[in-house]
Structures are given as structure tokens and as C-alpha cells.
Amino acid sequence: MDQSPVSPELDNIEVELFVQALQRRHGYDFSQYAPASLKRRVRQLSDQLECKTISGLIERVMHEPQLLPRLLEGLTVPASDMFRDPVMFRALREQVLPVLASYPQINIWQAGCAHGQEVYSLAILLEEAGLYERTQIFATDLSERALQQAQEGIYPAREAQQWSRNYQASGGTRSLADYYSARYNLLKLDQRLRRNVTFARHNLVSDGVFCEAHLILCRNVLIYFSNLLQDHVLSQFRDSLVRGGFLCLGLRESLDYASSSADFSPFAGPLRIYRLASRSERKLA
Amino acid sequence: MTTPAAIVMGCSAGGVDALKAVLGGLDAKLTQAVLVCCHSSSDTVDLLCEVLGRVSPLPVIEAAERHAVRPGVVQMAPTGYHLLVESDLHFALSIDPRVNHARPSIDVMFTSAAEVWRETLIGVVLTGGNVDGAKGLHRIRQLHGVAVVQSPASAEVALMPQAALDIAGADHCVALPEIAPLLNRLCLA
Predict the structure, then answer these.
(1) At which of A76, A99, A128 does a domain end?
(2) What residues of chain A lie within 8 A of the CB of B137, using their CB?
(3) How open is the CA angle A98-A104-A110, to the nearest 5 degrees?
(4) Are A207 and A104 contained in the same domain?
(5) Is there a domain that residue A265 lies in?
(6) Which residues of B belong to the active site?
(7) What is the residue-averaged pLDDT of chain A?
(8) Among the three residues A41, A76, A111, which one is the final residue of a domain in this structure?
């Protein structure tokens, strides 16, 4: 059994100390991450790096600075797919992009882009809508390693079938294979798709607003944050969006405990697509 | 034994019929939260909630992100996410990689529930076609919760309950029709 017989109390103390070590040694603050998933990820890191205990991992946090990129990736990067939740991408295609088309220049912020699957999905949507030439996508993530992978756009080919189905279900009329080449069990996305993408490091916990966005996608990122941090990030999104700008969250994310949610009105409610309410609407709310 | 605070339940292949039998037999007076993780190929658990809600005396809903765990209510893990429980008894979701090819994974839900509810948790492993749930049930037992496993002979697919028995063992290993009466006894005692 690889499951530790350690008592939950001891585990909790160790995870707390780990968070403190990371903060004091490297300046990254994970204290407002949701505890259950954070604990799972810290344990996994500890196992993957073959530390006997989380305390062993803490020693490495302190004395092996070259480990930092690996730690940040392990603590933050989830698993994603191209066109995950096709109904949401269909709504983007059919309802959101036609509104964005009225702007001469479109700025999109993909916050927490992880390995980039959704960045390429978005680029394909924009390409097919004929909007890509006047769009700038800012794809940001905390993890340097995730950003590198996102830029390379190389994924295991075993995903291709599911992703093709997702693409079709999102209203795609071509073949997803038109956008990648496959060899050695890998598929590589057409690098022309990233011609208008800027990949950049950005920490939602500590970094501020850096662009005026017409659309922000931040799907299944805030689920890892406490209510307090979720609210903080939503207020940043509010400050970044143009009036009437769009915000897309993951399909199961709840805004019920975030006071900044008053600033957003549901656009396609069950699909978690919101629009920034105008100031007067916000006062009433 | 201390009165249980919650029941966690996992299944995959053949799970819908097994869940109907178990949830359908629960006593309406139960005040325990019931958390269910059922592997499925459908996009949502809407239909499953509806089907199970028709047979169960307890309401059946999808567990909602950040919301409080509700006593006396069956709460299903949403499709495509791992379901975890925070120590303040609120739900959290994650899209971390699949565990045992599954998301939601029974192991993930069981493990986080075990650490929250400890000896006041009952874990139930039903029919299923993979080994998910076995490690989680082991963690439940480590923390002195109660393990209930459907007898493999009564399971539509024996692999999952058999793996649970092999890896975690069980406090009660009973046939499908016995599970609801057993849970009622444990919870209403």
C-alpha cells in the first residue's frame, strides 16, 4: 500500500509547514488554496519525489532551489482536454464570438492555461469564425513548465479520438486532424495557431491586472482556491474586463460564496458564461 | 460505536441497479449525509439523480461546489470532477488526473471523507468493473470507520468488491438486499 498510515493531524501540520516553507523560501503563497486538493497534491509530490514524509519534501524545498519549477507544476497544473465541455465551446462559437466580432481588436485572457489545450481550442474557434487575425490571446499560468509545454503544443495521441469528438460536438465542421500532425504516438498542434498567442507567467494570487480583456476564460482554476481567494480573483477579472466583457468558468463552478459575483450577470447561465454588468446595474445589485 | 455522521458509496459497472436497491431501502429518518461516486459514461448525473430520487426516501441531488454537505440527503459526485470534502464540511471539486481511469474516483472521495469523518464514516463498495475504491476503503478502516462491501457473489460485476475485500477487508460483507437494512441499523442505532 502506498497510502500513508500517517494520522490526518500529523499530515495537516506537515502540509501547513510545507506551505510556510514555500512561502518563506521562494515567495509563493499557497495558504489560500482549498485544503483538500492541496493536501492531495503535496502528498503526490512527496511520493513522486520519493520523499518518505512531507517533512522530507520540506527539506528539499529549503535546500534544492532547482526543484521549484517542478513543485509549482505539481501544485497547480490540472488535467485538461481540447474542447472540454463541448456545449460551452458551442456557446462561445454561436453566442459570444458574434458579439466580440463588433470590436476592431479583440483581447482574450486565458487565465491558468495549464498545458494549453484550451488555448488551441480557442484559437481554432477564432480561426473558423474569421476573427483570429484581429485577436490577441494572453495565455498565462503560474507554472513555467506548464507554459513551456503549452507553447510546444505536443500531446499524447491517445487523446485524439476524444478530442475529435469534442471538436465535432462543439460545432466544428472540419476535421480536428486538419490542425495537428501525428507521429510517434504524439500529436503536435499546428504552430500557426499560436501566432497571436502571448504566453506569460502570471500568478493569480499576487499579480495584478495587465490587460483590458473582452473575454476571460478561467475554467476549473478557481475550484482550487478558497472562497476568499476566489473572490479576490473575480474582482481582478472585473477590473480587467471591458464593459459587457465575458467571463467563462468551469461548468460546475459555484459563485454562491463570492461577493464579487454581483458584478457579473449570467449570459448563458448553466454554461457558466457571464457578462460584466454595467456600473449602474452593479449599484442596484 | 459512535453514531455515524456520513456514508460514502462507490460503484461502477452495474452500479445503477445496485444503487436503486441500496438507496431505495434506506430509512427516511436517516440524518446522515450520503455521498455517492458512480463511474458513468454520461455527461452529467442529472438523469441518475432523477432515477434514484424516484426510488429513494431521501432526496438525491448533485453535490455542488463549495456548498455545505447536507445531512439526510444523497449527494452525487458530478461527472468529470473528483469530489472532495473539506474539514469544514463543504464540498470541493478537482480536475486532477483520473485515478484508476476514473474521474470522479471513489478512492479520492473516500480518502478525503475518511480524513474528515474518521470513525463516524461508513464506506460502502458495490458492484464494479475496476479496483477503484479499494485504497479509499483501506484509508477509512485505518481511521476506524466502518467498511461495508457487497458480497462479490451478489454483485453484477465482482471485481470492485473483490478488490476492496483483498486490499481493505471489510467489517460487513453482505449480499445486495442486506445492505440497506444494515446501513439503517448502523445509522439508527
Answers:
(1) A76
(2) none
(3) 70
(4) yes
(5) yes
(6) 12, 39, 132
(7) 94
(8) A76
A18 plus A60 within the same structural domain: yes
Do A179 and A277 fall into the same domain? Answer: yes
Of B67, B78, B118, the CB nearest to A256: B67
What residues of chain B, 136 to 165, have a C-beta less than 8 Å from chain A? 138-139, 142-143
Q: What is the pLDDT of residue A2?
A: 45
Closest residue on chain A to B96 (Cα): A78
Rg (CA), chain A: 20
**In residues, how long is chain B?**
189
In a domain, A81, yes or no: no
Instruction: List Cβ neighbours of A85 (8 Å cut-off, separation of 6 or more).
Output: A219, A250, A251, A271
Residue B1 has a pLDDT of 61
In a domain, A3, yes or no: no
Same domain, A228 and A193: yes
Question: Which residue of A5, A227, A251 is in closest CB contact with B66?
Answer: A227
Give A58-82 pLDDT, tens digit per residue: 999 999 999 999 999 999 988 889 9
* Closest chain B residue to the Cα of A11, Cα to Cα: B115
Contact residues on chain B for A4, CB-CB shorter than 8 A: none
* Together in a domain, A178 and A98: yes
In angstroms, the CA A5 to CA A95 distance is 51
Interface test with A, best of B94, B101, B115, B140 (most A CBs within 10 A): B94
CB neighbour class for A131 (10 Å; exposed up to 12, middle 13-18, buried from 19)? middle
- Per the CB < 8 A criterion, the answer to whether B58 and B74 are in contact is yes
> Residues B150, B125: contact at Cβ < 8 Å?
yes
Question: What domain count does chain A have?
Answer: 2
- Per-residue pLDDT of B25-64, as tens digits, reads 999 999 999 999 999 888 889 999 999 999 999 999 999 9
Choose among A1, A3, A252: nearest Cβ to B65.
Answer: A252
Cβ separation B95–A250 shorter than 8 A: yes
Structural domain includes residue A2: no
Q: B92 to chain A: which residues are within 8 Å by CB?
A: 34, 36-37, 223
Query: Counting Cβ atoms within 10 Å, is residue A115 exposed (0-12), middle (13-18) or buried (19+)?
Result: buried
Which domain range does residue A182 map to?
86-284
Taking only the tens of pLDDT, chain B with its 189 residues reads 689 999 999 999 889 999 999 999 999 999 999 999 999 888 889 999 999 999 999 999 999 999 999 999 999 999 999 999 999 999 999 999 999 999 999 999 999 999 999 999 999 999 999 999 999 999 999 999 999 999 999 999 999 999 999 999 999 999 999 999 999 999 998
Domains of chain B: 6-188 (3.40.50.180)
How many interchain CB pairs under 8 A, A with B? Answer: 72
